[in-house]
Amino acid sequence: MKFKIGLVISGVSFLLTIFFFLIFKIVFPGLKIALSYQLIFFLFLAGALSWGVFDHKSPLFGHNFWRGSKKQPVMSLTFDDGPTEPYTSAILRILNQYRVKATFFVLGQKVELYPDSLKKIAADGHEIGNHGYSHEVLPLKSPAKIRSEIKKTEKLIISLSGQKPELFRAPHGWKGPWLKKTVQKSGYELVSWTTGVWDTDRPGEQVIINRSLKAFKNGAILLFHDGRGLEKNPDCHQLVAALPVIIESALSQGYRLETISRLIEISRLKLGSHLE
Ligand SMILES: [Zn+2]
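That is the input. Now the predicted structure with zinc ion docked in place:
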C-alpha cells in the first residue's frame, strides 16, 4: 500500500513539474530551463509530498497533536487496532492494577466483533479514540469517505459506551491534504504519537520493554497495539507480558500516565500548545 501511494505521489509530482514547466514557458518564453533543474524540482516535490503523507509528525498538511508539553512528567499510553480478546481485557487488568489511565483507538469493525470489550474500556474510565471503521489508509480518500469511516465508528462507540469520542488517529498516521479539515469538521482533534514501539512485529518482550523505556520523556505519547489492523487472530501476548514492566518503570521514574485528552488539557492550559 505504501508503494502504491508512493507511486501516486511520484505521478502527481511529475505532473506538477510539467505543469510548472509549461507555465514558466508561457510566462517567460525566452527562459531556458535545464533538464537537471526540472529533475531536482521533481525529486524535491516528491520528497516533500511523501514527508507530508508518511511522517505523522510532519506539519505539511496541518499540525496534529503528537506530543504533550515537555515541562511536566506526564505521558500517555495508547493502544490501536482493538478491541481484540483476550488482549484488551488483559491490558485493562494491568492498567487497573497500577491505577493508570490510557487511550484506546478502536476500529469500528473490531468493535462489532468485541462490543463487550468496548463497554469494559469505557466502564474502567479509559479514553476511547476513533481509528476509523476499516483501517483503510486515508491520504487518497475523498472527504466523504473519510467522514463515513469516522461516523460509522462513532455511532458504534456512542451506542455502546454513551460517550462521543473526541480524538481521531489516522490508520498508520498517514495524512492527505484534506484529512485534518475533515477530521476537525467531524468534531475531532487529529492526534498521532511520539514513539511507535512496533510491538506488532513481535520483536520479543525485552525489546518492547527497551524501546518503550528509551522513549520515556515528558509529554511522550507511546503507541502500542491490542490488535493488528483487521486481523482476526493477532498475537499481542509479548506486549501484554511487557506492559507491567513498562508501567512500573514509568511510575518509578516519576511519570504520571494520563489519557491523551488529559495530556492535551495539561499541555494547553498550563504550558501553551503544540497545536495551531
Ligand atoms: Zn492502526
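The pocket of zinc ion is lined by residues 80-81, 131, 135, 171 (CB under 6 Å).
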